[in-house]
Write a sequence for this structure.
């Protein structure tokens, strides 16, 4: 089993959706989450606050330097994510497609680095 | 790769080279199934061919060269595994090695599905088209990185990087090595066929560079199409693609004239067409017809069959060609199909009707559209407008042979325009 990040790319500048649409999306995501949990694919998920709440911390040169705002000034920003387990990329893409339908956004599916397997196990 | 550089008796080196050409893809596909890793599979198959190059000249060629390569590669992979497992308790390592050795005799047989699985992996939609093309040629077709780089006119390090990035993605993203589920099989088969078609067009229309390398791409794509049609006997479109490529290839000897210029279909010397290929192509098209599950490749093959069936250009059954394009357009309603259909219409209803059909098409950026307009305008006696259209085509064309052909046509129309004045 591999772990995959399903990253939600959101345009935070887009006009707000109606309350009904939002409630429908919440319900769809809840249902998707419940499916993930019951199928054993669920690892973690969460939605993020708007990108302007982000702070960059750079301590690579010794002392930490803070910068207000997200890392990249792109139109679309990370809005939330799932971490799922899946047997292979096809299965992960399948979950990504369902996540995309549920939340109404584009999803980036990206594999996690694999821990070296323990041969004694 | 390196096995080609070694000094060895010419006959044996040629034998190994021939086995390499024919069996590399099969051996790699089988080894990937056995070892579960593309990189390791490629390395041990390469090593097995190097061993063959040393030993066959002395010991003779084994009765089943392919089986020998696969078994030797498999042993190499086990040796590797053993080297890597030195840190585990000796008893466990020994037991593991023993079980792997027993496994060799049982499973080190190439299975047809191995190549199919590998082809689906190489053509996975999560990989870019250039990556799919390169991987298919390397892993399934057995071409060297250098050969693929030359065929696509990119530096060898660029192609090597493209291949290693794609292989890394297959491994790290967990692209499965298997035949896709029924639910997505149709789409994935279409993806495999599209990749093979892309390889063919890469060889067929490419402009500059080493012509021999280009011809190789055409031959490789026919080989891959033949492999897929054999592996997927129930997929009518796979047979359709093979028929299309075989029939298009059959006209190759007549497509370029002695002066190196492109020869238009109606002016080609039909005695130079490859009759055997045409015979095979027609049988394949017939086979498609009896299945009665038409698709875009089959219809394009049927159009090629009508052309190759005509003893002379005048004898072409143009209404039949138009009817086939009508059918194709219902499945693929694109401007390109509409343009090709209109060119067939020109032969039935005349150039003016054809011109009126292509005027509205959104193909202003494609040289072929301007060239087609030029031909139709010239046929209608509008030489000045034809020259102007040819100029637009020349500004867009990036293929040397087509450019020379267009220049020749333009000169001809300029002469006509001058006479008309």
């Amino acid at each position: 089993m591999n772990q995959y990040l399903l990253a939600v790319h959101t345009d935070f500048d887009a006009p707000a959706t109606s309350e009904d649409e939002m409630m429908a999306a919440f319900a769809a995501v809840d249902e998707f989450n419940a499916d993930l949990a019951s199928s054993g694919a669920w690892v973690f998920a969460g939605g993020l606050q708007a990108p302007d709440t982000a702070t960059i911390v750079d301590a690579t040169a010794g002392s930490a330097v803070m910068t207000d705002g997200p890392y990249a000034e792109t139109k679309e920003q990370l809005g939330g994510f799932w971490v799922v387990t899946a047997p292979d990329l096809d299965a992960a893409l399948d979950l990504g497609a369902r996540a995309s339908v549920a939340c109404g956004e584009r999803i980036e599916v990206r594999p996690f680095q694999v821990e070296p397997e323990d041969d004694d196990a | 790769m390196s096995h080609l550089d070694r000094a060895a008796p010419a006959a044996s080196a040629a034998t190994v080279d021939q086995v390499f050409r024919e069996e590399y893809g099969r051996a790699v596909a089988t080894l990937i199934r056995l070892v579960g890793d593309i990189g390791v599979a490629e390395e041990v198959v390469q090593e097995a061919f190097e061993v063959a190059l040393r030993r066959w000249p002395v010991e003779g060629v084994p009765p089943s060269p392919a089986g020998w390569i696969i078994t030797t590669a498999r042993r190499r992979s086990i040796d590797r595994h053993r080297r890597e497992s030195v840190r585990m308790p000796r008893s466990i390592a020994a037991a593991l090695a023993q079980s792997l050795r027993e496994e060799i005799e049982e499973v080190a047989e190439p299975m047809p599905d191995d190549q199919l699985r590998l082809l689906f992996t190489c053509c996975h939609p999560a990989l870019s088209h250039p990556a799919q093309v390169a991987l298919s040629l390397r892993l399934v077709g057995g071409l060297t990185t250098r050969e693929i780089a030359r065929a696509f006119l990119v530096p060898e390090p660029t192609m090597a990087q493209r291949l290693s990035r794609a292989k890394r993605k297959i491994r790290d993203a967990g692209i499965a090595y298997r035949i896709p589920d029924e639910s997505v099989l149709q789409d994935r088969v279409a993806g495999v066929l599209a990749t093979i078609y892309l390889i063919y067009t890469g060889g067929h229309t490419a402009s500059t560079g080493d012509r021999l390398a280009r011809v190789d791409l055409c031959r490789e794509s026919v080989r891959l199409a033949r492999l897929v049609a054999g592996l997927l006997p129930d997929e009518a479109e796979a047979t359709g693609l093979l028929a299309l490529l075989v029939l298009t290839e059959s006209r190759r000897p007549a497509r370029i004239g002695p002066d190196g210029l492109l020869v238009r279909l109606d002016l080609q010397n039909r005695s130079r067409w490859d009759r055997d290929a045409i015979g095979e192509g027609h049988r394949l098209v017939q086979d498609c017809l009896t299945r009665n599950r038409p698709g875009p490749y089959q219809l394009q093959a049927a159009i090629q069959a009508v052309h190759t069936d005509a003893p002379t250009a005048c004898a072409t059954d143009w209404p039949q060609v138009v009817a086939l394009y009508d059918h194709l357009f219902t499945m693929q309603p694109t401007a390109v199909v509409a343009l090709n259909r209109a060119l067939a219409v020109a032969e039935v209803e005349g150039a003016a009707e054809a011109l009126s059909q292509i005027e509205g098409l959104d193909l202003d950026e494609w040289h072929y559209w301007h060239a087609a307009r030029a031909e139709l305008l010239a046929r209608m006696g509008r030489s000045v407008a034809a020259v102007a259209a040819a100029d637009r085509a020349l500004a867009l064309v990036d293929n040397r042979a087509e450019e020379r052909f267009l220049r020749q046509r333009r000169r001809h129309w300029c002469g006509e325009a001058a006479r008309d004045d």
